[in-house]
């Protein structure tokens, strides 16, 4: 078994104009000038910037997208397919983010179909799972998260083409985070479920933590058991903040 290379991924959400390309440039400068980080780096800007960022990226940062349709093409006004994103240089696509599940009523079955479409294009899916505050208060965290995981991850998943992101909904954009012990507990449960389903390969999937990751808490969160990187929202928008999180993987 090989230990997975951690992934630090930025999710820009609905933020960024063409002027934001400068943040990618600044990030690449940090990466070039500072000690080498033992992780892979990814930025997922809005669709409108994917092509320009993929052209601009100098190799140290990969570019991805935040969603796709599960069909390859067709009569789906306003939608974008995995094939289209591959065509413009995306390597990863986030699916099942809680904001998509809430705002667009995406179910785990839909997320499964999207991830399978991404695999069909030879790209990697970042499949998000996470409980709401009510579910956590009701003691249902593990049931909800493992339930979402089981349905959202398609049978075509391998450690190469799939990354899991555990993002407690109540921690997203709130400044609140679970304790390191809570993160370790749920990540270990996710690991167990992956091993149960995929055998030895289950040990090699990367499981990212997401939800209010900042330079000040990245070290301790990234050191938790079975945490193989971060999915970062707000703090990925500024290269200096994102670079501070990457520091967790610099020695
Ligand atoms: P946040 O968002 O880092 O702003 O909490 C994380 C995410 O939603 O991916």
Which helices and strands, and how do they pair?
Elements (H helix, E strand, L loop, with lengths): L6 E5 L9 H13 L6 E5 L2 H10 L5 E4 L16 H6 L4 E4 L2 H6 L4 H13 L3 E6 L3 H5 L3 H12 L9 E5 L13 H19 L7 E5 L4 H8 L6 E4 L6 H8 L5
Parallel strand pairs: 1-2, 1-8, 2-3, 3-4, 4-5, 5-6, 6-7, 7-8
Helix pairs in contact: 1-10, 5-7, 7-8, 9-10
The structure holds 2-phosphoglycolic acid.
Notes on the protein architecture:
This protein is of the alpha/beta class. It has a single domain (about 5-250), classed as Aldolase class I (TIM Barrel, Alpha-Beta Barrel), CATH 3.20.20. It is about 40% helix and about 15% strand. The chain has helices spanning about 20-35, 45-55, 80-85, 100-105, 110-120, 135, 140-150, 180-200, 215-220, 240-245; strands at about 5-10, 40-45, 60-65, 90-95, 125-130, 160-165, 205-210, 230. It has an eight-stranded parallel beta barrel with strand order 1-2-3-4-5-6-7-8, surrounded by six helices. The longest helix has 19 residues, at about 180-200. The model has no long low-confidence stretch (mean pLDDT about 95). 2-phosphoglycolic acid binds next to strand 8.
